[in-house]
Amino acid sequence: MAHRFIVPDSPTSSEAPSTPDRKYTRGSASMRFDDAPSTTPAGPPPSSAASFTPAGAPTDSFLGSSMMRGGAATGKSFGFGNSTAAPPGRTLFDRNSPANAPLGRSIRGRGPSALSQQFYVDEEDAEGEDVDAEGDYDLPPPRTSLFRTSLAPAGFDEDAEGDTAENDMDAHIEKMIDQEMDMEDDAEADEDQDEDEEIAGSEVGDMFLNMRHDDRPYGQPIIGDESDLMVLNTPAATDRVRKEAEEIYRRSSMRFGNSIKAQHFHFATIAKDAYTTQDVARLTEPPELILKTESLVCRLYNEGVGTEDNVEKMDNSLANIASNLVGLWDEYVESLPQPEGEDDASIGPSSQAEPFEKAAYIAHLVLRMHHTRADTTQDGEKAPPLPEVMFEWMQNSHNLYPDQLREINRYKPSPACHQMFWLTLRNALLRGDVKGASQLLRNAGWEHVRKSARGDKAYVGKALDNVRRFANATCDVLDQCPGANMDWDIWNSAWTLFRVRAQGSLDKLALFAEGHEIQLDDSMEDDFAPRVQSMSTMARKASSQIPWDIYENLQLTYGIILGDQKAILDTAQDWCEATIGLFGWWNDNSQRRNQLRLSRSRNNLSSSRFGASDDYLQRLGTAFYQVIKADLNPNVMNPVEVAIASVFEGNMNAVIGILRTWSLPIACSVAEIAALGEWLPPPDAPTAMPSDSLDLDDLALLGISGPSADENEGIKDTTLVLYARELAGIDPMSPQQDGWEVAIQVLGRMDLPEKSEETVGELLRDLLATLDENSSRTVNKMWHILNELGMIAFAEETAETFADILSKESHRYGEALWYFALSHRTDRVREVLNLLTSYSLVQSTPYPPENELDPDLKDLLRKRSETLEHRAEQDLEAAQLLGRMLSGYATLRKFYELRDQYSDGGMSAGKALSLKREAMTALVAVIASSDDNIRGGLYDDTRDAVVSEDFLLALLGEATYFISQTPAVVSLSQMDVILKAVEDIQTVGSRVYEACDEFFNLVLSSGQGLKGSTPADLMRKSTAGGYMMTGNTMLASHISKSVATAGKVTRGWDWRKSWKATTKSEDVLRKLRFGLAEDLAALWLSEADGLFVY
């Protein structure tokens, strides 16, 4: 049912209705009212036009039209010519009229864009000859139709059409340009107003939606008589209504800022089945390619991600890394072996191609769509319009016949003689090669075209001149196309002006080829009144001016550049080419860009700050769905085509899912770039199921699967986990790097920290099980990587596990100390140092001996400052911990080394005294540290002494050698420290004292030559004792080995020689008190005599 326009009613002052005389031509595009006098019986004529119709409206039975009944009901006539203006709000072209027509009334099509808005009114005769069976009035085709009925006036002279028509057309084009510029100025001014003002007072609305589209009288129901219901119930009308509803929904959703990403994806189910039913790809890529890919992705995080949000920096980094990745993958694809045999022409790589080639093909497309940047001399790098990117991609990656245009240009005797000339021309234009199409058309060589191989020339004389004239005119239009200069911002003013000019050129072509039946103005006041002609007359007129085949092909060419959907789809060779061609050329609505701009300025709902514009992505998805509606469908059995379809409709999850069935490195790289570029939608937050609903087990029983890991965790994270598990099995990837290193780096870039740590923990458990005492290089790498990724707990666990291995399976105590310090385990560091201190006290000699020191422990003892400074570069806290805890053992070891330098007959008395005093100073420092936790006889482990209190009695036993010597070795301050220690150990709780006493007995019993100090006695005491060292199986094993293999040890002295193996600790303390009293008295006497200087 054709939409109808309500003609304004005549003013109420008219005394009687009258109908002007009409000279009517079927299919005419205008109305003509002559100046003949009126003979209407009653009242003055409403216009100067003549009328032979009696007063009053015709009856319903006469015309049978609801439109005419509506006019009769109001008692008013049609007013044209010089009639009084209709009341405000009731005019034919009033933009503010309410759009109250039902949906079914607007299904005959909408008017063209505001630039070329033209209206046609059919004149119907009094007998209703042009009223169809449904009561509808057929409107002529719109001006932009490619094929029109040729209706020239009977007296039209084709030789005299030139100047007047061209002048009128130029004036018409200038008028349309001025109107469009005014509309753009109004739209830009409206952007600064708020939403309410725009809705209430905008004058640049949709003319069609604001019009009244039915002929019912005001106040009547929307649905009219039964004939209207019958029309709406026809299958064709139902389909049109459905399409109209979809279009209104699409426009309204676009109006409020919704993007295509939020809508349902047509191929989502197919794509999901494609990658969920296939196994994930195995790592078959060479390690060099994997490492280079990983290096580029790491650069992206190092260069683009910072402490502050820098959009420009991130955008540049994304563009550079994406370009480098595409180049790297394409280079590897070129080295892959090509499949043998021939394959059918298809979109993308053939089915026999390597999976990596397919993945690189899709990754190339999606990365170029979102992160292509163009170098400009003025503004630096900027994102080119998406149509330019898509045309370039299609030219390079989807061009089945890349040399076809060149071959036809070189065809002899001329390109126009080739049977593929017009198809190649339109295809080049469709693919965005405007210059190539223009050059081919300009160099066509029409004079060489023949009707057959040996026939006459097809175009001669005037026909040849006309062909050349309009072919060159078409070339001029193509040269003016912004796309010829690589300007594919299809919503700017240059494109608006180009489309107006192209439409004018097409109108000139149609006017010349078909005659003056197509009007130049929409005012319905032309002086030209065409008359009906027969089909034979049309054929003669068309053939006499321009060959019809040329006319048809030029119309198709104009159809492409003007964005006619049918012309574009008819030219395309496949659905992919049709989608990109329609995306670039389609002129769907001239006001759509303004609406999008206003919507975005109000809502600021752009989904990405880095990728392609949402406007273009919306347009690409809409173009793809239009192609699908035209029955150009992807091959759902070809995963490459399904992936491209997912790209077009914006389903990035499906794209990444399909990519990981071909290549995990490419899939992960694309996922990470998409996440940083904000064009990969984040996963929806999992929602708890209602308590009264079915749980997952119930749903599984019913055959309903719950949400997958991709949906809960995000497809990026699940893909990274799969990639990391594959990488962990490659060892090594290079002489400097192992697969697990890359795996941990990959896991560190996951979005969910909990899942990342869980997966790293699983990987570490498997990796730590393979470590031995020679895995320090591996452990250092693991610690560095985990620490850089912020996984401190896993770094500490790795260091502690390796330190345990060293303590149990080797004598590299210095290395074990450092790894325990890296794990920040103070208790484990203390445990190793207690081992070394206890064994040194038990043997009364430094342990391990000098010749058995491992390099790390030797550096800590001999080059303490330099070594700790170097360690602090790796972990300052660990270096500080190790330096503080090592001081007690190092001082005790220094005491033994000074002692062993002493010899009764080998040095002077002065040197011997000096060595004794140095040794006593070191020993007193160790005693003070051991006494630190029991100051005042109260045990307090929070003082965190570096030497255990369990060693205090043994240390005091070492001090018994220095008492009662002449001259005195012990100073007053040292006496004070020793006496305080004696008081504290005797007043502390019994548990602490008993532990000290047991260790003292073990030390005394281990002295060689003492009664009860055999290895068997030592082992019995060590296994039955309750002192701290007996609980350490590592210490027990080392002591048993050392005792069994102990050789002769050279000592400067051994304090145990003065005691029996059965001596009690109380006896030692008593002697120590007496000796210190004697030494103190000797010091007082020496001071009194003035002889003592200490």
From TrEMBL:
It comes from the Eukaryota. Belongs to the nucleoporin Nup85 family. The keyword Phosphoprotein does not apply. Its main location: nucleus. One of its GO terms (molecular function) is structural constituent of nuclear pore. One of its GO terms (biological process) is mRNA export from nucleus. Residues 48-59 have a biased composition (Low complexity). Component of the nuclear pore complex (NPC). The lineage of its organism: Eukaryota, Fungi, Dikarya, Ascomycota, Pezizomycotina. It comes from [Torrubiella] hemipterigena. It is found in: Nucleus, Nuclear pore complex. Residues 1-143 are annotated as: Disordered. Functions as a component of the nuclear pore complex (NPC). Keywords: Membrane, mRNA transport, Nuclear pore complex, Nucleus, Protein transport, Translocation, Transport. This is Nuclear pore complex protein Nup85. The keyword Methyltransferase does not apply. Residues 121-137 have a biased composition (Acidic residues). One of its GO terms (cellular component) is nuclear pore outer ring.
